[in-house]
Amino acid sequence: MAREPLDTLAAVRAAGKTGVARTLTAIETAAGEDWLAALLDEAVANATGYVLGLTGPPGVGKSTLTSALVATWRGEGLSVAVLAVDPSSRRSGGALLGDRTRMKTDPADESVFIRSMAARDRLGGLSDHSIAAVALLRAVYDMVLVETVGIGQSEGDIALVADTIVLCVQPGSGDSLQFMKAGIMELPDIVAVTKADMGDVARRAAADVEGALSLNHRAADDWPVPVVQVSAPAATGVDGLVEAVRNHRDFMAEAGRLDAHRDRLHERWIREAVRESHGRTGLRQAEGLLSRTGHKCPFAAINRVAEALEGRPRLP
Hints:
Layout: H1 9-14, H2 16-29, H3 34-45, E1 50-55, H4 62-75, E2 80-86, E3 112-118, H5 128-137, E4 143-148, H6 153-157, E5 164-169, H7 175-182, E6 190-193, H8 200-214, E7 227-229, H9 238-253, H10 257-285, H11 287-291, H12 298-310
Parallel strand pairs: 1-4, 1-5, 2-3, 2-4, 5-6, 6-7
Helix pairs in contact: 2-5, 3-5, 3-12, 7-8, 10-12
């Protein structure tokens, strides 16, 4: 296959939103190509942005909150990308929900990029394409917000890409009890109780969440998970959420936590890709190769493992 014109990170950045959109399309259509793996690994090596994962059940208000966060970050002069990971259509395989119908942004703003991607067969979670998209976006934009539909697997899948995870809980829905049963409270770095304008119901939900969080054993130097009450339509609590994200980002920047965290993510990306394409048996067969494969270039590593397992010769 001929190399794409946008085969370097500098070229993608220079082309702006059009270049990013073209590259995300290539991620969905040219997976496994060496030129694309090289571009994505260049993005991994130049990941200057920060990734916020926003998850929670349908109807909790994630898209409205996303719009408020984008507006706040843009007001601070930050560039923002939003990746909305939606359930897949069984007929077409595409995303069922449209991002621009749910989020209010200025389409003429070159510093805001929004894209929907289908979860495919990940039950609301993140496909390999979504992971690659995040790798690219965090090398182009200051803030990357990944929004997933929380129907079970996505709460765990969001941890594959996020530097900070925000779990959204809706007052009066019984979510906090269900999350407690499922152990999901071990995942978030921040919990946002949405629709705080509901008053006492929202305050009770926040208290329930704090109670659930108190059951998790955490070391003395662990991050203390804050519970923030927000109402994006009423414009209350958003600043508190932004501050909580900023505080967690500062925490991750200390003592090399963020670098270590991303090294673990990259290793998981390789293993998840091998398991998705070759199953658990393939993953076991690849263990020796994985131990010799550096996580600094995860996309090239994925290609090498696939070639080894499938017996494909490398192209010149």
